[in-house]
Amino acid sequence: MRHKRVAVLSPVAWRTPPRQYGAWETVASNIAEGLVARGWDVTLFATGDSVTRAHLHAVIDRGYEEDSAVDPKVAEYLHISEAFERAAEFDLIHSHYDFMALSYTRLVRTPVLTTIHGFSSAQIMPVYQKYRDGYFASISDSDRAPGLNYLATVYNGIDLNLYPLQESGGDDLIFLGRIHPDKGVHLAIEVARLSGLPLLIAGIIQDEAYFRERVKPFLDDQIRYVGPVDVEGKNELFAHARALLHLNTIPERFGLVLAEANAAGVPVIAMDLGSCREVIEDGQTGFLVASVPEAVRALDRIPEIDRAACRQRVQERFSIETMVEAYERVYCKIFDLEANKRS
Question: pTM here?
Answer without folding.
Answer: 0.95
